[in-house]
Structures are given as structure tokens and as C-alpha cells.
Amino acid sequence: MDNNVCQVYEDEIRALEEEIKLLTEKYEDIQQESTFFSEEEILKSIKSFRRETWGESKGHESPSDLKAQLESLETDLSFLMKLTGFQFTSHSKKTVEKTRDRTVQKHRLSGNCHSLSFQLEFQLLETQSKEKVSSVITDLNIIMESGEDSGVSKFVSSVEEHGDLVTFFRSLSTYAEWYEHRRRTFLHFK
Q: Under a CB-based contact definition with an 8 Å cutoff, are residues 150 and 156 in contact?
């Protein structure tokens, strides 16, 4: 019985050590992101945030208005999920590089479209000039369970090569919808 108790404590210690490691990495990422900004920029952001929150909390919107707005947004989100078939299950973003005129962020996104699951990894390169901000997707990696359909594999390779996420989402939505119809039809005949 003592061995079982010791094992339970050792497992708990390992789990806590892993949690500490993850939290430390997260803290270091936050610290790294915050070091890219000068004190002046941080103070400007804080003042802007205070103005926004104080402006909203001075009675412009009552709690019932906010609740109604939230319900409206939830209804819109539900409608869009039914319309497109997309349901995103996770998203993470990590800033890899940040300078005055260039930012590189690494994104990971996973979800489902109808019954097909997908995972995306890409880097978003934002460059800022005096006139405009431009964004470019690089290092796109798409993971999908395409089964034995080689057309999907070719399509995914093409999208990865061109870094065209809009085409991917549009095409995936249509393909997944018809994939689901075919699956139901074949189940009906079995």
C-alpha cells in the first residue's frame, strides 16, 4: 500500500513539474513579447485602454444591453457555424520576431468542417510602411485526414505552396459538405 501512495505522490509531483514548466514557458513568451515595446508605447496603450473602458463604463451601455449584444453575437456565430460548417477548436499565437516595421507570428489553428478535421500551422509576416500594413502567410502546413482521395492531397499541396488560406477555407467548406452527403448516402445503402 505504501508503494501505491508513493506512486500517486510521484505522479502528482511530475504533473506539477510539467505544469510549472508550461507556465514558465508561457511567462517567458509574454516577457519576450513585452520587451519589444518601449515604455512610451506601453504607457500609450494603457492610457488608450483606460479611455476605452472608462468611456464604456460611464453608462453608455447598461448590463442588459451588453447581455443582449452578447446573445446577438452568439446567435450570429451559431448561424455562421451552421452556414459554413466550420467549428474551430483551438488557436494559439506566438510572436517570433518583432521590430518597428516587421512582425512575425506563428499561428496554430485546428477545427472541423462538417465531419472533416484539419490543423493549420503558418507564420504571418506583417510589414509596416508609412502608407500601409501588408500581411503575407509563409510556411503554411495543413494536416487533414484525406483518406484515399488523392485530389485532396494535391489540393492541400497546392494551397501550402501558394499560402492561400482563403481558397483553402472556401474549398474545404464545399468539399466537406459534399463529403458528408456522400458518406450519408453510402451509409443508407449499407
A: no
Location of C-alpha cell 500601409 = 132
Query: Rounded distance, CA 33 to CA 27, Å?
Result: 10
Which distant-in-sequence residues (6+ apart) come within 8 Å of 32 by Cβ?
A: 95
Across 14-48, b (16+ Cβ under 10 Å) vs e yields eeeeeeeeeeeeeeeeeeeeeeeeeeeeeeeeeee
Same domain, 30 and 113: no
Counts for the chain of helices (H) and strands (E), in that order: 5, 4
pLDDT, tens only, 69-103: 888 888 888 888 888 888 888 889 998 888 888 89
pLDDT of 59 over the 60 cut: no
Domain extent for 146: 85-189
Q: What is the DSSP string of 157-179?
A: HHHHHHT-HHHHHHHHHHHHHHH
Rounded Cα–Cα distance for residues 76 and 87 (Å): 13
Same domain, residue pair 41 and 98:
no
Cα angle vertex 119, ends 118, 125, to 5°? 135
3-state class of 68 per DSSP?
Answer: helix
